[in-house]
């Protein structure tokens, strides 16, 4: 079904946890923008992550949502980092059409040292390693994986490298996460997480206009406009780079309003928003199926107090099984 476009003000704003596709016809740019609120807050608070870890995972969730909602088929899009920093593993995945889950793994001692030293930027927490983007279309197709080095640059810059390598499309990504401290309807102090992001891509009708610098910055003739870049994309990229992190996370600056601020002079159009939800794909039957593949010795070693307990790393749900449930049917 084709998405219906509307000008700002013709319909209610999308609000939190809705991805808003947009198009700027005057600049040949398409993209998606999102602000995440309750959905993200549920994911982070479930694990009680320290603030630096929560903020980092929030950015990865935003990136996953922005890219995952572009899938045109049933499948799963996963973003995963593996590095040698205090946060050695981050995983977030988007299952079509709307389900998101995520978790982080970190070394408490290394994280405490990093915080004490003031080294809490995303690139410092991740260290050196790799970031993998995986697209899985199910059992009838081979998964596609793109891998980009974690090299001390930001997640925004690393995502840009991924697009240059895999899709050859000029792309600019912006990500931000923030803690909010306010009061609920009863006047009690409240702590919440929010995050936002935007991805803009240059998609002119003439493919030759999509020329862009190479992975090392190209042979630019100045610091702002690499040689050969199209004027429309230079303008669009420059506008996207003016976004403040606060604008991406401010609950009073809706996604459509932000897009209007950026592109109104060029005629931005927004499309029907897509809701995303905090939903894990784990189930008792799935985990039972895995355990039934264990040997009798492995089943014995996995028991504690006469039962086997398995906790999902994503949603923290614990499933408990009696050993007799895992025995083969006679």
TrEMBL record:
One of its GO terms (cellular component) is cytoplasm. GO terms for biological process: protein refolding. SUPFAM superfamilies: Hsp33 domain, HSP33 redox switch-like. Pfam families: HSP33. Residues 206-230 are annotated as: Disordered. InterPro entries: Heat_shock_Hsp33 (IPR000397), Heat_shock_Hsp33_C (IPR016154), Heat_shock_Hsp33_N (IPR016153), Hsp33_helix_hairpin_bin_dom_sf (IPR023212). Keywords: Chaperone, Cytoplasm, Disulfide bond, Redox-active center, Zinc. GO terms for molecular function: protein folding chaperone; unfolded protein binding. This is Molecular chaperone Hsp33. It comes from Rhizobium lentis.
